[in-house]
Amino acid sequence: xxxxxxxxxxxxxxxxxxxxxxxxxxxxxxxxxxxxxxxxxxxxxxxxxxxxxxxxxxxxxxxxxxxxxxxxxxxxxxxxxxxxxxxxxxxxxxxxxxxxxxxxxxxxxxxxxxxxxxxxxxxxxxxxxxxxxxxxxxxxxxxxxxxxxxxxxxxxxxxxxxxxxxxxxxxxxxxxxxxxxxxxxxxxxxxxxxxxxxxxxxxxxxxxxxxxxxxxxxxxxxxxxxxxxxxxxxxxxxxxxxxxxxxxxxxxxxxxxxxxxxxxxxxxxxxxxxxxxxxxxxxxxxxxxxxxxxx
Length: 295
Description:
about 300 residues, Heat Shock Protein 90, three-stranded mixed β-sheet
């Protein structure tokens, strides 16, 4: 299964078996961590869950450690090794497919969105045609948002998301996010109440903007009309805590554990009419984690 013949390991010291594994590892550092803990650790073993080996063909294994205890042998560890190559290959193909389709959708959507915006702003359209243009514009905007979210998911899963962190003025980022969401808030008679300190943080500018826009937009989306959305940002030491508070119906307790999973939504009779992809909070958590924060 790992590309090592029986005659290569039979009767050999375990340390030699470890060296054979290292020689076949696609990521020697991860493999070395497993081998060193396996042969040298006297305490609990904390293993990476996955190990990729460059056997004659690339293979990915999931490794689950378990503790061995018996009257004869009071200590030791065993490992369940599962060949997850096919599952990883399917996941890779899915990520590539999502990225390809999302890129292909953006070109026609950009044209639909742009021309419908031009029609909406036109003063010469009859009332019915203007209403149709507004409908196309709104749906084009929604599809563009979903497409961009799918592209972000594809970048995260493929490891190509820009995670560079730079000094960033938080209040400027927040102001930009509020400007992006304000048209939707105004349409629903929702005002913003901001309590924020002027502070510089180290963050990815595009990731921070996405996080703030998504959280505030969610608050607006699920708030009653009219009402207010409160945004509080307070610094303590080297930590900035940001809170977005609305007066909506909240999230069912049973759904709290799943809200950061992709395509997961808390749907109730009260919010069933609200549309969404279920990707927003998943992306928020991924971006916050990459910036060294928690949510």
